[in-house]
Design goal:
The chain is an alpha+beta fold. It contains 1 helix and 9 strands; from the N terminus they run αβββββββββ. The longest helix has 18 residues.
Amino acid sequence: MRTLFVFIAIALANLISQAHAGPFDGKYRLNKSWDCKNVGADGGAIRIGKGLFETIENTCTMKNPTKIRGMSGILYDMECAGEGETYKERMLFIFQNNKLFILSDTVNSTWQICPPN
């Protein structure tokens, strides 16, 4: 009976985590020389997950996802903090051909998905 309870608890936890997973969740690097283990450091990875976008010395909350008609991208209102500053920005995220494209008024970058650990 206890084994059944543990199995059900694990299955529910997996369902809950999948329900909250976003379409861009994962770790990304700018190129193969960047380290996928160190998130948020120079030469390290960026991470998207649980509604957060973690970059070099900055973290943004991803709000109000808006699908773009006729495109695979999603536009987010970003509320960011880092280096003693807070700011808001809109960013478009598009995932195609195993690459993440990020576009805004201040950013235009292409990221490679990090390989599994």
